[in-house]
Each structure stands twice: as C-alpha cells, then as structure tokens.
Amino acid sequence: MANSNAAQLPAVGVIGLGSMGYGVAASLLRAGFQVHAFDVRRETLDRFAAAGGIAAESPAALAARVRIVIILVVNAAQTDAVLFGENGAAGALPAGAVVISSATVAPEFAVQLGARLTAMGLHNIDAPVSGGAVKAASGELSVMSAGDPAAFELCQPVFDAIAAKLYRLGDEPGQGSTVKMINQLLAGVHIAASAEAMALGIKAGADPAALYEVISNSAGSSWMFQNRVPHILDGDYTPHSAVNIFIKDLGIVLDSARKESFPLPLTATAHQMFLSAAAAGHGAEDDAAVIKIFPGITLPERKQP
Amino acid sequence: MANSNAAQLPAVGVIGLGSMGYGVAASLLRAGFQVHAFDVRRETLDRFAAAGGIAAESPAALAARVRIVIILVVNAAQTDAVLFGENGAAGALPAGAVVISSATVAPEFAVQLGARLTAMGLHNIDAPVSGGAVKAASGELSVMSAGDPAAFELCQPVFDAIAAKLYRLGDEPGQGSTVKMINQLLAGVHIAASAEAMALGIKAGADPAALYEVISNSAGSSWMFQNRVPHILDGDYTPHSAVNIFIKDLGIVLDSARKESFPLPLTATAHQMFLSAAAAGHGAEDDAAVIKIFPGITLPERKQP
C-alpha cells in the first residue's frame, strides 16, 4: 500500500540521521519514497538499512542516485562539509537537483549557501525545521522555508511526507533561517526565564507543582515553560535538547545581530546563563538544567522508577 | 431571575473600580449580589450606581454594610490606605468579616496584611487575580489564593461569580501573592523578549506578520507573544496594560528577591528595558511599546481606521 505511488515519487537522500534526520528519513520511507541515507555513525546507517532504507558510503555516493537531498546535520560547518568537503554531495548531484538545507544556521550562511549552489546549477531551499524528535518521527514538523518556487514544486511530496506546516517565507534562501533564528532566540530566553521563575518560586517557598499548574494556565505561560518545567519537577535532566545546543543557537543569534551592531539584552543574558550552566559541568544535560545555576535552593529530586 | 437567591447571598463590597474592579463588581451584580462600591473617582461610582450598584462615600461607610470586601486597588500603598487610612475599611468591618485582597503586592506585604487583619478579628484571603479586563467583566478571572478555609467557605459564592479558576495555594496569606509574583516575572520577561525578537526580525528584513504567524505556532511562542505582538503589527500602543505597570511589577519581584539575596538576571534585564522605554517617554503607552527602545528599525505604522 505505502509503495503504490513509488514509481511517481522521486528518490530522496537524507544526510544526517540524528534524532531529527532519522525521523524525517523514516517518515519518507513510510510515505513510499526510495530513501538513500548517509551518516558518519555506521550503526545508525545499518539500523536505517534494516528498516528499509538504502545506506550510502558517502555524501557523494548518495548524491549520484537522487534528485532531492535533505541536509539534517547539526550546524553550518557540517552542512559545508557534507556538501563541499571530501566526497561532498554538491559536486555529485545531477544538474537541477534540489538541496533542502535544514540545519539551524545564521541567515547570512543560508544566503551564501544558496548563491553557491545556484552557481553550480543546483536549487536550494533554506528550510530549518521545528518540532523536535517526536514530530520528526511522525512526519509533522514545522518547516520555515524559502527558495525557488520551481524547487518547491518538485519537493512538494517530500514536504507532504515530513511536515504538518510548511511556511513559505520567500523566493530566495535566507528568510527561512531568519525566522528560525528568531524562534530560537525566544525558545532560549523562555527556557532560561522558566528556570529563573521556578528558582525564585522555590526560594520563596512555593510548591513547585502548584506553581507549574497555575502558571501553565496563566498569562506567564510559554510553550517552553509547559514543555521544560516538567523535567525540573521530575528532577530528570536526561537531554532531550542539551544546554550546549542553546549555547550554539543563541551564539548564532548574537553573532548575527552583532554583525549589524544590533543589541539583544535578554538574549545575551540568557546566553550567559547557559554558559554558566555549562561551566558548572551541565552542558550535556537537558537545557532545563540551566536552573542549576541558581544557588541556595533545593531542586526536586529524581523519582526512583 | 438573577436576584432569586439574593436573600441567601451575603452583601459584598468592592473597593477600587478600575478596569479589574469594575468588571468584578459588575459580575457580582449579575450574579444577584447586593454590591456596595467605593472609588475615588466620583463619575465611576455614579456609573456603577446607575448600573444597579450602591455607591459608598468612603471605605468605612462601605465596610459597615458588608461581611465581605474585595480590594482591587493598584498596589500595596493603596491597599494599606483604603484599609487603615482615614475612613479606612478595616476598623468599620464587623467581627469575622473577610477582606479579599487582590492587588499585586510583595508576598511579604501579603503576610503582614494577613497578620494585621487577624489581630483585628477579621479574616484575610490573599487573592491576586489574572486575566485582564475582559475576563474580569465576564466573571472568568484566575484567582491565586491563600487563606483560612472557613473564610473560603463564606466567600465561595463570590468566587463562583467572578472566577473561572480559583487556585487554593495555602491556608495562610502569602502563597497567592508569591505565585502571582512569579507569573508577573514571566509575563514581564516575555513581553520584553517578544519585543527583542520582533525588533531583530524586522532588522533582519523578515516580514513582521509572517514572523508572528510562524512563531505563534512554534516552540518560541508564549501567551504574551500571542497577545502583545498584534499591538506592534497594528502600530497601536493604546495602553491595555502600560509600560509603567511592568516597571512596578518587576520592581516588586526584584525587591522581594533582593531581600533574600537572590539573583534574577533576566528579570533585571527586562526591568531595565521597561525603564529605558519609560525614560524615552513611553511609560504610559501599552507595554508592547518596549520595542521602541531598539534603534535603527522601522516599526509598522498605525493603520488609519
């Protein structure tokens, strides 16, 4: 059933099988695509092959077999490496192929990447994603995208398979990454603010669970407050998204604004809070661990399973 | 019909007929209560009398006629004045009467107020409210409350008439104001963060309306982002809640934490941003006007009606 339209569907490549990339690749398989994948971790690649995907030996080997490739690596440096480094994908893609670049990168990088790929006869869709590993796995990501309308037409079935919301923000790469950057600014500030608020509440003797319940239903709530404070209440800092990720993402925001001489007082403060958490040894923990920078309070302990 | 149970309902006093107090008083009238009211603005009092309420000449005059009084003035100083100042309510209330104190005040003040009223043979419910003028008018406020269970029993029909959610947070005054303080911390930081994010987005060339649409549906969203950014998009800074209110409320948060030697990096930064807005002449504008502190960007202009 799932493969009934496979003849009309283009072959797709996915580079980067982390928590987001694996979910996207699995969603494409489920929708009937032939999915080629590359990841530096051999065991992840083997797992994907066992699930029905096709493992590639390198980005270049993958690129020779597809007309659409989605890059879901961690940052700009890795995006650059898998496209233009040794055995990179860009040189091996057929003319007119589309590169969907989905790592969180500076808007400036997104603009330059688009120009570079265009000069090689390729299309680029600037397409950072939001929603986390669960939405990636269920094919319900939000995609903040910008690029050539003709490329979008070719990729429509791909977006149908991986996204619940496809925001089209412009006809040139850049605006997708700009909106994603603003989203990360708010997400990072809201996580740090949630930690600061819960820390003060605990200091003032409030019951943390009652505080969470009331604020979640009041004007002080945020998506991040509702999502991250339960980690604090459970005393469980298993990383869904780590402190170090927001050091990186808020760093991108601050660097971009600084190039334009633009001040971001709250973002800079939140960045320092995440840096304090990392300096104290919590960089690899869940980002809610930023609450550990507040001294003199007793946080809820982890319940025994 | 609305008055069919009036014989069983206690007479209630409302002191302070601002946007919150007037809505509460009107909700009580609608529920069939006999409602006495006092406000320093004579014309507001006349309007309430014309709507079916009973105007009092002073807090003391009001207090002599009721067993429950709700204080909905602006701050701790006004709460103190209407209760203990010249012609204040406290000395005129019958023994066993309940004072529901709903201004946003420091938790320390709420604790002291409870002790003072108890020493006079009165009950006190610490009961700050959230929800804004619209929810006050429709009788759907959230109430963050703490106080003597016997007092709650007497006041249940009052809360039924004015609140959609009554959070009971403790048996002594203080915890209601603590939770409200934490809510205001987050609300203030989120308004300032919304402004910072929209300012950077505009600087980076994003379409403000598209940015609002995407972020509202993404992990960067907050209650305040969804509520206040439309004011920025409309270029309409008619005050629903003014910049000066958050200078006051975040000031309460910072003062309370400072007494405990507790650091609040984001709250302090947001407070400075609201102070910058007020120093530039925007203190009486809507709190979304904090975005005007960001130089070098062109904000959406007000549409002509």
Question: What is the fold's blueprint, element by element?
Answer:
Two copies of one chain form a homodimer.
Chain A: E1 12-15, H1 19-30, E2 35-38, H2 42-50, E3 54-55, H3 59-63, E4 68-71, H4 76-84, E5 98-101, H5 107-119, E6 123-126, E7 129-130, H6 132-137, E8 141-147, H7 149-162, E9 163-168, H8 175-203, H9 208-216, H10 223-233, H11 243-259, H12 265-282
Number of domains of chain A: 2
Which bin fits the share of residues in helices of chain A? 40-55%
Q: Let me know the CATH homologous superfamily of the largest domain in chain A.
A: NAD(P)-binding Rossmann-like Domain
Q: List the quaternary state of the chains.
A: homodimer
Shape of chain A: globular
Radius of gyration from the alpha-carbon trace of chain A, in angstroms: 21 Å
Low-confidence stretches of chain A: none
Return the structural class of chain A: alpha/beta
Strand content of chain A: 5-15%
CATH class of the largest domain in chain A: Alpha Beta
Tally of DSSP helical segments of chain A = 12
| CATH architecture label name of the largest domain in chain A | 3-Layer(aba) Sandwich
Mean pLDDT across the residues of chain A is 95
What's the count of strands of chain A? 9
Main sheet makeup of chain A: 9 strands, mixed
N- and C-termini, Cα separation of chain A: 41 Å
> H/E element string of chain A?
EHEHEHEHEHEEHEHEHHHHH
Largest interface: A-B, 67 and 66 residues
Stated plainly, the CATH topology of the largest domain in chain A is called Rossmann fold
